[in-house]
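Exam prep: given the inputs below (a chain plus S-adenosylmethionine), describe the expected output before reading on.
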Amino acid sequence: MNAVLREPPQEPALKVAESRDFRSYHAFLRAARNYMEGPLVAEMYTRYESAAGPPPAARDLETAEDMLDELLPFQVYSWAFRHLQRFKYHRPSFGIFATVQAQRDALIARLDASTASAPADELRLDPNLDLPAYFKYVPFHQHTGGVTHDELDGIAYEIGRRTTVPSHGDPNGIYHLLFDTLPKKSYARVLDWGVGHGAALITWQQMHPESECHGVDLSAPCLKLAHQRAREHRMRLLLSQQDLEHLDFPDNHFDLIFFNFMLHELPPANTPALLREAHRVLKPAGLFAGHEFHVRPGDAFQNVLQRSHAWLNNETYSVPWYDTPIDAIARDVGFKRASITPFERLNRSVLRPGKQAVNANHWNLYQFEK
Ligand SMILES: C[S@@+](CC[C@H](N)C(=O)[O-])C[C@H]1O[C@@H](n2cnc3c(N)ncnc32)[C@H](O)[C@@H]1O
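Solution:
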């Protein structure tokens, strides 16, 4: 089924007016994060190495953590990470919340209009959905209250994501990188596992007009925005508010389930049930694929930075995620092949002239086949 509509969009665009101060802050934030994850990490590593000695000295996590805690570049990095992100949402004059709040009535009117005109299968909302306790109030990424409580949460989240991967000028570039790794073929029916504001699914549909595109999320404000954005692109996405642990799709339904930044936001106790459900709704030989950040094996310095990210950005479940035996769980729930490989195109090394490069972050690519 070709899901791209022929007729022009019925909905006008939803656009948040952004002041010059607001835009400047986001430009500054991207530059600051790039500085922190580049030259500042190089400076940090140089000092760490001179205190610890060359590898393999001081390569256990606790020692590395104690050493980094004492280093000024790490203290600056930590302070800046925490508070620049906090300012991003909360600055009274030009934070994301203040900006969308000032336009509240107009933004809600636009979302309401597009929701009201949505065909039933394009936007299935469930006001009685029981939100899992692990999700209900967690302020992931310092988004106070989480993404399900305020009607503008989807819009705030969409703006916030622009600087999630600051080295990418195009925040949707990360989706292209993921999709490029998948086997080149036609996918009749796909599911975006945690569709959020819809940008990944829209990117997929642009690349694969043949696919019937489904997206599931717990957040009604995100789904409403995803529907609005789909209509701006003249697309028909099939969005539904469901818990990924209890989907209403039949068995053997999807050729592909993809995800972006999802596993680290799920508590390990729920991961087996979530993967079992994904396995159930996949067709035989279907693929469950996505990317996720992780600790880099044997690299204590990177591991400290990665773990500190959990505290600095309210990534409540990411430290337990690093210890989750996801490949064993995938096999337990029935996947016949569980491949986990470093996602080198996303991994970022900081180059130091004449010296070994430093790993500032680490991403893995996950491909589980039914
Ligand atoms: C880190 S965001 C990722 C959003 C999107 N994939 C992106 O690329 O920006 C995680 C999303 O998963 C959703 N989510 C978390 N747990 C879920 C669950 N159990 N069922 C459905 N959606 C869930 C959240 O509401 C949120 O929109």
